Amino acid sequence: MYQGLLSLASAPPAQFVPPGAVDGIAGEPYAEIVRAVSGFAIAAIATYAIGRLLVLPGVVRVVVARNRNNPTIETAVQTYFHAFVILFALVAGIAGAGFGRLLTDLSIVAAALTLVVGASSQQVVGSLVSGLFLVADPDFNVGDWIAWPGGEGVVEAVDFRVTRVRTPNNETVTVPNTELTANTLTRPYGRQRYRVDEVVDVAYGDDAELALRELVEVARGDDRILEEPDPTARLVSFEGSSVRLRAEFWVADPMDVDLVTLKSDFRRRVKSRFDEVGLTLGPPSGHELSGELSVDVEGDASAAGERGSADGADGDATDSDDR
């Protein structure tokens, strides 16, 4: 068995272009180079075409059939398997060029891998590993709305180094995968329902119970707000010059509801309703002053002036008598 393996390893390398096929194209000194380049090109292109056009679509179909509710897997398989096809095409090209014996030398392969990893920066390798973790996370999918310390938006694709996110302003930003795995991620719209909170301040002299009831009624008047759970309103805190209230209500399919417009419409209706029932919305805050204050009284200053004039007249009279 070992003798068979040794004889196979010592056999002359196979080439896609047989000797003598390019002798009429190039001279004898360059015939070997042309054969190697032609063999590499034919083997690499053929392997890539088969993998890209036949194998990759089949693998994607199988993965999608097994993971219908996880579009992230589909994009990840396309990205990572495409890279694998390119790598395999390079290996096939090396073998087709007649250097297949190099691939059987483990020391050379290990040295090549070490060179590749060493040439790659630590950040790139970390992003690649982080991308694999993001793809494997069942709570992180393409189409999800995510929020991280640097922004928020909808996930469009997870690539080798970055994740592409579409922001609320319809901008596409590329976020390094390491930033998403190293920081806290929030999926505010990851469930079937989403709770909206709106804070309102009313004056101390107003009827707080009436304000709470009006907030609930305003929420119930919007068809986009769910009836179950029922909208509620709570007294949150006592501020310096106002009582702080909070309205809480739920919406379904938060990804399909324009929350910005919903909140704006709710605030407009609250302002109109409070004006109708005589409630003061957001009263002006009072300010406390500290320090010293001096006041000059005009009457006292005039009297002091008159006393000064009288004293001057008496002095003049005394001087006259002395003379």
What is the element string, with H for helices and E for strands? HHHHHEEEEHEHEEHH
Largest β-sheet summary: 4 strands, antiparallel
Overall mean pLDDT: 75
Helical fraction equals 40-55%
Q: Return Rg in Å.
A: 41 Å
Number of helices: 9
User: Percent of residues in beta strands?
Assistant: 15-25%
Shape: elongated
Structural class: alpha+beta
Strand order of the largest sheet: 1-2-3-4
Low-confidence stretches: 1-14
Terminal CA distance reads: 150 Å
The tally of beta strands, per DSSP, is 7
What does this molecule look like?
By secondary structure, this protein is an alpha+beta fold. The protein contains nine helices and seven strands, in the order αααααββββαβαββαα. The chain has helices at 2-9, 28-66, 71-103, 106-119, 122-136, 177-182, 208-220, 259-277, 298-322; strands at 145-148, 151-158, 162-166, 172-176, 193-203, 232-238, 242-252. Helix 7 (208-220) crosses helix 8. The chain is elongated, with a radius of gyration of 41 Å. The model is unreliable at 1-14 (pLDDT under 50).
Helix and strand layout, with pairings?
Layout: H1 2-9, H2 28-66, H3 71-103, H4 106-119, H5 122-136, E1 145-148, E2 151-158, E3 162-166, E4 172-176, H6 177-182, E5 193-203, H7 208-220, E6 232-238, E7 242-252, H8 259-277, H9 298-322
Antiparallel strand pairs: 1-2, 2-3, 3-4, 5-7, 6-7
Defining key terms:
9 helices, 323 residues, single chain, elongated, alpha+beta, three-stranded antiparallel sheet, disordered N terminus, 7 strands, four-stranded antiparallel sheet
